[in-house]
Amino acid sequence: MEYLDLANQKAAKLNAMEEAKAYFDNAMELLDTLSETEENRQRRISLLVNQVEVFMLLLKISEYYDLLTRYEPMAIELGDQALLGAFYSRVGHSEFHLGRFDQAIKMFTKAAELCEAAANAEDAGFAYTWLEWSHLYRGDFERVLAVKEDLLRTMEKRFNLRWYVRGLCAASRGYMCLGRSDEAVEEGQKALSVAEEYSDNSTICFAAFNLSIAYTSKGHLAPAIEYGELMFQKASTPADKAWAQRALGWSLCRAGETNRGIELLTAALPIFQARRWMPGVIPTTCTLGEGYWLAGELDKARQTLEDGLEIAERCGARYYAGFAHRVLGEIALNTNPAQAAPHFEKSMAVLQEINAENELALAYAGYGRLHKQKGQTAQAQEHLTKALEIFERLGTLIEPDKVREELTGLPKEG
């Protein structure tokens, strides 16, 4: 049993996740043949808790969640608060990946409290890392940044490379969604530097994934593509490869290489869908819809974005609901202008609520173009000017020039 446990840990540390899972399966089968002593029950729960990265990077969260559900009574009966806190943090992690963000937040909060009370700093750090991600997908970006401070506090007591890097990446994404792209890049670079210091390819891949997304959002597409390509060099697990396809696909679409970008996004999406991996399904569906729109494939774009919007609203992923409404508004500008206004208005309402400024500026710009199309010059100028002011303040690239051109093309009043 000890050999299988150590072999599992060694393989996981080397990112040999298929091998790690095989050792885990063998260990669980061996435990089934042993007497149900308290020591063996503790071994089983500890072994299960330690598999979270293995199952995540193999994209087998549903299988992991089933195991956690099966053994939850055993974890409770053991009465080990430090271990129970770690166990509940893994339950929250599964709920997050299944798109149950509100449930995940409650579970991570409970797990962190148990771990803190039992002086289990490492697993408290895990809970805080994924609590950040859960708040991120709910659109509570300032809360993401606040929880990051709890993570850093626990990492000072007991450092874990993967928890630390993933937590910094969540903060980077929070800054990105707020439109604070320079801070997003700075936080992402910190994560990448630490990952490279430890020469951990999977963690390097995850940090590069988030840097690519940060640069794409800013409109700085050359480094976005560069980091996307780095991911393909470093990807060593199924999750790494799907993340690489998602990030590089989006940056290529925005860079005008829509055929290649769409090819990558359409390769990643069914991988996420088959495994009910909602933090992958939601953004990949929405960015694929945007890619189709940029490629002029409007029917595919509309259908894809309607699918993405339905899932985002069902899961409470407000940022992506606003994103989907915005691009659906852009599509309607060309196909059915009467439907454009409701989409832009819903997008602006959601994005204002969560303070997603860069995305909000894109919605203002689209709404301004709609008014321009209708000959409503004053309203067009108002919303285009709002968009330009935000883009210039945030330092967004590409979009300000587009908006200035729209403003220059407005008819002179009087």
- Largest sheet report: none
Number of helices: 22
SS class? mainly alpha
- CATH architecture verdict of the domain at 161-272: Alpha Horseshoe
Helix content: over 70%
Number of strands: 0
Low-confidence stretches: none
In round numbers, the mean pLDDT is: 96
Q: What Rg is obtained from the alpha carbons, in whole angstroms?
A: 23 Å
Output the helix-strand order. Answer: HHHHHHHHHHHHHHHHHHHHHH
Rounded to the nearest angstrom, the distance between the terminal CA atoms is: 85 Å
Q: Which CATH C-level class of the domain at 161-272 is it?
A: Mainly Alpha
Please tell me what the overall shape is: elongated
Task: Output the CATH topology of the domain at 161-272.
Answer: Serine Threonine Protein Phosphatase 5, Tetratricopeptide repeat
General description of the model:
The chain is mainly α. It has a domain of 112 residues: Serine Threonine Protein Phosphatase 5, Tetratricopeptide repeat (Alpha Horseshoe). The chain is 85% helix and 0% strand. It contains 22 helices and no strands. The longest helix has 18 residues. It is elongated. The mean pLDDT is 96.
Which labels suit this protein?
single chain, 414 residues, mainly alpha, Serine Threonine Protein Phosphatase 5, Tetratricopeptide repeat, 0% strand
